[in-house]
Amino acid sequence: MQLGRARFVRLHDNVNYVAAAVICAGEGDDTEILLIQEAKKSCYEKWYLPAGRVEAGETLIESVHREVLEEAGYTVEVKEITSSKPPVKLRGRDFLKLVDEGLAYRTAKRFANVPPILPVNEPYAGLFVEFMICKYNKDDTRVDVLVHKSITTEQAMAAHDQPFPTCEFGFEYFFAMVISKCYRHLLDEGSNALFVPSQIVRLRCAPTPMESIAHGLQVRLFCEHKKSAGKAPIKSPSRYHWLTVSDPEIRRQFYLEKNQYRPSLHLL
Question: Which InterPro entries does the UniProt entry name for this protein (predicted)?
Answer without folding.
Answer: Nudix_hydrolase, NUDIX_hydrolase-like_dom_sf, NUDIX_hydrolase_dom
